[in-house]
Amino acid sequence: MLGTIEEEPAQLLTSQRVAQLNRGDKPFHVILSQQFSREGIEQLCRLSEMVRRINDDREGSQFLRGTLSHKRAMLYFIQPSTRTFLSFSAACQVLGIPYNEVRNPSTSSEVKGETEDDTVRVLSQYFDLIIMRHPVEGFAERMALMLNGMRRPLPIINGGSGKDQHPTQALLDIYTLYRCFSPRGAERGAATRGSERGAVPRASDRGIPPRFPENFFSGKTIAFVGDLKRGRTVRSLAYLLCRYPGVRMLFVAPPELMIGDDILEYVTRYGIEYEIRHDLRPVIGECNAVYMTRLQDEWDVAGESKSIDYGRYHITREMSGDFKPDLAILHPLPRRHEIDPSLDALPHAKYWEQVRNGMWMRASIIATIFGVDTAITDHYHSYYAH
Ligand code: NCD
Questions:
Q1: Which of 132, 169, 297, 313 has the most ligand 1 atoms within 8 A of CB, as the residue to mutate?
Q2: In CATH, which of 3.40.50.720, 3.40.50.1370, 3.30.300.20, 3.40.228.10 is domain 167-356?
Q3: The pTM is what?
């Protein structure tokens, strides 16, 4: 049941867009966070737990590599990227998908005057999946619709679209939050073979639960900190968190870099409580999670962010006395100075785990698009969950 979203009439446009990107109730292209229902998010989190455990030994990793070895992927990343590129390429490797890359348009026929649309049409003939990072908002979505009209439609995954969205990052962020907020201790890793210990809550020791608790994020305060206007990861995560009634969001940013009104309207429509703040220090003690972001000054038109005092959007060692015991510090990376490196050693620092979670989440997304999620789940239950 991935991607079934009941939209208000005012959201008709979004639901029309979602309908064009999904096939039935499942995402075919992954372009917008609004494509994911709560059920869909949770299925992906459960699948990520299964994939990481199955991959933990030789037989399991061989099984996973056989699931999609007949598919080929193109990583079309024409905006700078290291971790997202490597995360997707590692995810392809987990599933046995050979991949190729275009990262520099100056080496493609675009220098001969080919349009980008034609480049994507050509790529679509060689590959079964295009994973795309592009500086222009809406480009990945437009290409998805264009490919829908071709004889051999193939899925596009958005690995970052301008200042707009980065849905796979948001899915891995929510998976990280699940792991952070899950009960730890005896029930952790009961069905685990090998070194990795799962932390997603489970109803019994027979495996991963069919549902997460109804109130999972209820009463949790999640602060988004920094350049919220141009940070696409924040926008995508805010959309996903709207699936969780009872969550509270703090948007902590300089007035010039505050989150867009479109997100605030969406959050309001879903009845989510939020506050706008301009300084992290006074609110840090209220937070269960802080989502730190860097200044996105590559989008400056005339150096306008130089005059901003970004120090108020840093998390420092001095604040640690006020941290709640379960505070989780997240960051999509790359970081500059917004997290004091001395915090890296604290249990609150989750940003390195976030990177690893991303590899499993992206493998799960790709597996789900190609319909091998059921085979992976069956494999998990026959080998690991008893
Ligand atoms: C982010 C991005 O590219 O939007 N990085 C990432 O994908 N992990 C955040 C950023 O660049 O600041």
A1: 169
A2: 3.40.50.1370
A3: 0.92
